[in-house]
Design a protein that fits this description.
This protein has about 450 residues and is an all-alpha fold. The chain has helices at about 1-10, 20, 25-35, 40-45, 50-110, 120-145, 155-180, 185-220, 225-250, 255-315, 325-340, 350-375, 380-385, 395-425, 430-455.
């Protein structure tokens, strides 16, 4: 009997039980299908948990977007300042030096002819140095730009092509002047005309373009970072709205997570506005207090050399038409206006005062030169124009040019200092924006999660 019971126990289950075992997974599959049913999904979306999840995801996305957009905007602005400091401003300075060097070379070449025969070594050295500096600046300008796409390549090519021609004509004038041929003055006049009507015009256009690039970079930085500000305000408003909804619908007065997220967005918004304002203020101070005065000083220095060239060419050419006098008077009058109108609060005001005094003494020396010419005293006129005396025109022109050069150096240092300050203010804002954006997104999740658990 025991054996019979043991054998029965070892028998397999009835075949009738097989369908039951085959359909054990059917309830689970049906449950999944029921949850994925579109009607049930719509019902879940409109339910309180679904709304909480949807709003939470939107808030998290807004916080991350606010941090990312702010960081990207600040990084772009810092990159623009880096380019301004490393490329744009030095390029403008190089163009200004090119313009000035060409003017100095032309004035020095004219001055060298007044003595007759072999020109003074100091004057000759000044001409050679100015010509060499102009050539060096051309090399720098060409090395800083892509010749195939840069619109100013035409200007640099024109100057580089015309400069050797100008130097060659000057050498012909020198050779004729050494042996006493009057045609040397004609060569000098032709070279100066080429410089004034061709090379200097191209150099001025190049300098204007490069200065305009600096101005454009400054205007772009001063413009408020509206994309970052708008996204931050949108995220902050959405977080405050969610706090109000929780208070109205779920009877939660304060949600710590959302409060932390809103605080992070508020801190980031305030940081962005304050840092951006301080940075823009530094840029405006550099533009109005340094860049604008520097443009006046650059024009003043060019006018100085143009007036000096006209003054010396009048003596070399024995001009009686008054053309050189008109050029001199126009340049000096405009120079006086620029120096008199220089802002008293701007950098290098002391150097400008020195330049203004030197201009007055130069005018007096020029009057003595004209008086000597009127009496037919060419030697006396030449001494007044190029003599070594402290009251002569040459000394005053040197003093004026030196003062303007020192003023330009100081204003440039001020401008670069303000640009650097504008960049330093933004140093930690970009990484800080990313950190605060991630912190706010995490705080939103922490604030929403306990509310979801209430619906389990």
């Amino acid at each position: 009997m025991a054996r019979t019971e043991q054998a029965a126990a070892e028998l397999p289950p009835p075949v009738a039980d097989e369908p039951v075992r085959k359909h054990v997974g059917v309830p689970r599959t049906a449950a999944i299908r029921e949850r994925l049913d579109p009607a049930n999904l719509r019902s879940f979306v409109y339910s309180s948990p679904g709304r909480l999840i949807g709003i939470g995801l939107i808030l998290i996305g807004l916080c991350l977007a606010a941090g990312s957009v702010t960081a990207e905007t600040v990084s772009d602005r810092q990159h623009g300042l880096d380019v301004l400091l490393a490329d744009t401003e030095p390029d403008a300075q190089s163009a200004q030096r090119l313009y000035t060097s060409l003017s100095v070379a032309d004035a020095a070449a004219s001055t060298a002819f007044i003595a007759g025969g072999l020109e003074p070594e100091a004057v000759r050295n000044r001409y050679s140095q100015a010509l060499g500096e102009a050539a060096a600046e051309l090399v720098i300008q060409s090395g800083n730009a892509d010749q195939t796409t840069d619109p100013d390549a035409r200007l640099r090519t024109g100057i580089a092509t015309g400069l050797p021609v100008y130097a060659g004509v000057i050498e012909s004038a020198r050779a004729n002047n050494r042996i006493g041929y009057p045609v040397g003055a004609a060569y000098l006049s032709e070279a100066s005309n080429q410089m004034q009507t061709s090379l200097l015009l191209m150099a001025q256009e190049l300098e204007d373009h490069r200065s305009g690039a600096v101005d454009a970079a400054q205007r772009n930085h001063v413009r408020p970072p509206w994309p970052a500000v708008m996204v931050l305000m949108l995220a902050l408003v959405a977080l405050v709205w969610m706090q109000v909804e929780l208070a109205k619908r779920w009877h939660r007065v304060i949600n710590p997570g959302l409060l932390l997220a809103a605080s992070a967005m508020l801190v980031l918004l305030a940081w962005t506005v304050i840092a951006g304002s301080v940075s823009a203020t530094s840029m405006i101070r550099g533009r109005d207090g340094a860049a604008v005065p520097a443009s006046r000083l650059t024009e003043s220095r060019i006018l100085t050399q143009q007036a000096r060239s006209a003054e010396t060419l009048k003596l070399v050419r024995r001009d009686a038409t008054g053309d050189y006098d008109r050029t001199y008077d126009d340049s000096v009058n405009r120079l006086g206006e620029l120096l008199d109108g220089y802002p008293t609060h701007a950098p290098a005001s002391t150097d400008v005062a020195t330049a203004r005094a030197a201009l007055d003494r130069w005018r007096a020396a020029h009057e003595r030169m004209n008086d000597s010419l009127a009496r037919g005293d060419f030697i006396g006129a030449g001494t007044a124009a190029t003599g070594p005396g402290a009251a002569d025109a040459a000394a005053q022109v040197d003093a004026l040019d030196t003062a303007l050069g020192n003023a330009l150096t100081e204003t440039r240092a001020t401008l670069r200092g303000n640009i650097s300050q504008a960049a330093r203010v933004l140093d930690f804002l970009a990484p800080g924006a990313m950190v605060l954006g991630i912190l706010a997104a995490g705080a939103v999740g922490i604030g929403i999660w306990p509310r979801l658990l209430e619906y389990r």
